[in-house]
User: What shape does this take?
Amino acid sequence: MAEQLIDITEPAQDYLRDLLGKQDQGGIGVRIFVERPGTPHAECCMAYCPDGEQEEDDVRFDYEGFHAWIEGKSVRYLEDAVIDYKKDSMGGQLTFRAPKSRVPDISEDASVEEKINYVLYAEINPNLASHGGSVQLLELTEDMVAVLEFGGGCQGCSVVDVTLRDGVEKTLKERIPELTGVRDKTDHTVTDNAYYS
Assistant: This one.
């Protein structure tokens, strides 16, 4: 058996075995993945995964009495992760600690999204923070346009177009040549926190 990527403690394994045993489907497991990996907003998620519903690049790990599919692109963000279960007055709660889930990956084989997130969080957001602002990637379109959303002091700011064109877009396109453009999807009618009104 391959060495486990995620340490699922005995109480958590007992809980998951019990939970999966109550499902009316044989061969059902769990699927574990990270949403917005490599960003401060990363979230570790777990869902039921009936047999045949795993993705092609998912990796299977077998535990006693059940199996877990790890999303292929989440594997590197889930190294050293620990899933635990603690009983409490409400019954109990699964906890998920994944210390690498929020660390940007800029290895040679990093995806364009991962590269964009790295540049946003390592270079651009520290500069915007001086005005109380931030920017995050919402999506990357098929034609390689980064769709961004500004927050804080940048939302509703009267000079956000200059920030986008001369700062954010210029920096991203210099660092990531595959990128063809940048689009702002922020609702700038909300000006409550705008740095320049």
